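Hey, can you fold this?
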Amino acid sequence: MMNRRSFVLTSLAAATFAATSLAGCGGNPDAPASTGDSAEPEAEAGTGAVDTGTLIVGFDASYPPYGYRDDNGDYTGFDLELAQEVASRNDWEVQLEPIDWDAKDTLLDSGAINCIWNGFTMEGREEDYTFSEPYMLNAQVIVARADAGIASFDDLAGKAVITQVDSAAYNVLAGDDATQADLAATFASLETIPDYNTAFMQLESGAVDAVACDLSIAAYQLAAKPDAYVQLDEPLSEEHYAVGFKLGDEASADVVTDTLRAMDEEGFVEELCEKYADQGISYTNWCLE
């Protein structure tokens, strides 16, 4: 017969063994039962318009006619109206976010915006964003004061040229293309500024001699002040506008492309181009078919 002392020792040994076994397996008597070692971590929620139901448009508010503030203080423009119509047709909310152009990549990566829709050139940026199909033809051009005697690229030698920071025009002139790099080397200076409205103010005041910009920006400025400026006939480059999304957001890019195509087929795009025709927008430059 087991005496009382032997029974206590045996019980303590059994308890110690059980506790050791639980500790060796990572067990915790207060923890919930394991669901198995093969459980996958929950996937991170996407920030795209398809995922959230909200199209958050990052745009430069000083970039007429694509995005700007009108006389009533409201944000408007050709691209912003396109974005609003796309959102409406997909039952998305739309949020217009004026941004510092230098911060666009940080804002897109963080989800503070989920697209860049603002006369956004896709050439040279294909590795950095997922784009919609291109919808508008564009070019980079030089605009000078009408009284400056600048009629060709040769006349830019020794002149001060300005453009928007991180713009397609700057990338063309400061990029790897030898022809444009050689042209820029003849300038007295190639300056950058945060927005084109201020660039044209400097041009008008005589602080600089020429502005390198998008064709559409040139058309807008020439329409506003036809006697003040002249656009050089030869373009710096030709390119396309597209809507830029966070790299990998093909779902949102595809929906936007399909919706833009449907809007064009129904005549919405042509009517919108006519609305902005006096600001330099032409339906002949629409390229999404």
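Oh, and this one too while you're at it.
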Amino acid sequence: MRGYTACILASASPARAATLRQAGIDPLIRVSAAEEEAVLAGFDPAYGIQAQAKVRALAQAKADAVIPTLRIDDIRTLALRHGKPLPDHAVVVACDSMLEVGGELVGKPHSPAVARSRIRQLSGQTVTLHTGHAVVLLELTEGSVKRGAQRVDHVATQVHFTELTDAEIDAYVATGEPLEVAGSFTIDGLGGPFIAGVTGDPHSVVGISLPLLRSIVTELGVFWPSLWNCTNRAL
């Protein structure tokens, strides 16, 4: 598929959207209403943390929740914004990340107390961030959106943290940044100086792996450059 292919990002994450835009892809944003706790409740703890399976299942659930909400007019508007015709195909991209630390999987802390405790646990440690990716190919006509083939995959990245003082932790938590990000940190914001390095794909630390995404869409028959729609203009 070498004509323009639209990208729909099933995520509210500004970091994921910014990562795609930096790679030349301005996506249509659709926030998923997937019941994440219900998805996780289906896993038997007797089988361990099941990190890969969980993030893959969560990503799939997000994609599944978004697809029924899509309308041709929304995709047409995105295409026109960038001087593109209505495409014949689109891809829905959904991701979910969880941090493996101390033999447990953690997601967003939501509260300052939990964030503070987790960051103290991360200080000076190397931990693994797991990110599931679900990509669904859509066939588009003037009046309908038809679901096609899909792929689900996972990437793991090791994140090396510096030693943080209690005062630094308190100041960071007070900003609110770590409250709604997986594992209580993000590399693309105020938390960046607290990360000494990354082993693996650095893009995945913000919740989406560009090399993995390229591999997946290629498997689905999509030419990666066909997704580009903002390489030569400001957003």
